[in-house]
Structure prediction request, 379 residues.
Amino acid sequence: MKQKKPSVYRAILSAARESRERFGGHGSALAQAYNHVILPLASDADKRLQVLWGLRDFEHRFGRKPEGMWLPETAVDLGTLEALAAHDIRFTVLAPSQAARIRPIGASGWSDVSDSRVDPSRAYVERLPSGKSIALFFYDGVLSRAVAFEGLLHRGELFAARLAGAVPDDRPRLSHIATDGESSGHHHAHGDMALAYALHAIESRGMAELTNYGAFLESFPPDHAVEILENTARSSAHGIERWRNDCGCHTRGPGGWNQSWRGPLRAALDHGVAVWDREASELLPEPSEALDHYIEVILDRSRRGDFIATHVSRENPVRALKLLEMRRQLQLMYTSCGWFFSDLAGLETVQSLHYAGRAVQLAEDLSQNARIEATFWAP
Prediction:
């Protein structure tokens, strides 16, 4: 977007700055995992890297630390929440189907809220095994489906009424939804106009007060604890199996198609870290630290010289940079959309294979072993 639609990019950054002014220093923009990897399927090291690189990318663009982070497809487990909390992320947003049980803070008895029965109008806190905690919001699933699939964006007036109507006045409550950005224009023509109209109507008529997650959390901290359903995601009843197995979810192609290719392909790609493990200690004085900071070079190639001087062995700087770039490609090949659809030959999965191919090319160059590709795809 920065390259192809710079005016839109600048408008987003401007809106983010304005949101901080309007909402008491709380910006509306959220960070996200670096390249939309399904985090519960990632190793602990990759979870950490995805969160860290996502934070650095956000700081580079928005000039501040994020308060919240969006999880790809809201896929979650406790390890993922630990990775967020370790980097001082205050909150994330999940689907209502991902809450297991809740209780008032200080109470001993839990209430079962599975099957999307959680109240989406308040913030909750999840106590983590490490002793840290993180706030969780569960979006309004009924309203979100109405926007995405039931034509609520066809009439801004109705949209405003539905949003404001979800905020009873018996206590401070939050009305919020989560949909793909494509809903506002691509899937529903002029949906962006309906959204703008609805927000203007709500504010100008005093139907409700506009806010964002950070501001709401500061004013109304969680008074209920929650426990999540692990290894779940918002876009599949089968949770994270949608991205690694033949789970039965079907998109595109004839009815007889399946996703039996997911498991073997993921097993093959999982072999890719071996070259990194072998080469990193020789080329990088502190491999983990160098990998953490490589995002600075990705975001701004002019920083390459300073990065080499600080993090790279001076005997083989080119080989070290190739190794780090290979590691980046090993992240990119797990981008979630490459594993979501039925067709192995679809552009999304093919793009993931391009990333894998580039990683193999760099690995063969580093190892001077032309047979890495053959072993890479071995079952």
The mean pLDDT is 92.
